[in-house]
Amino acid sequence: MTTRKYGHASKSCKICGTHDRLIRKYRLYVCGRCFREVAVKMGFKKYS
Ligand SMILES: [Zn+2]
What stretch or stretches form a coiled coil here (predicted)? Predict the structure, then answer.
């Protein structure tokens, strides 16, 4: 898959697009809010 939806805007949340409190942990590149949702989906229940 070579879908480049975000182009050079890779420093923003890949879910909602904001660049506030971007978390690059685990190479998720999501903001703090979205990270919570992603974390839950991935099984990081300690963030819930
Ligand atoms: Zn977000």
Answer: none
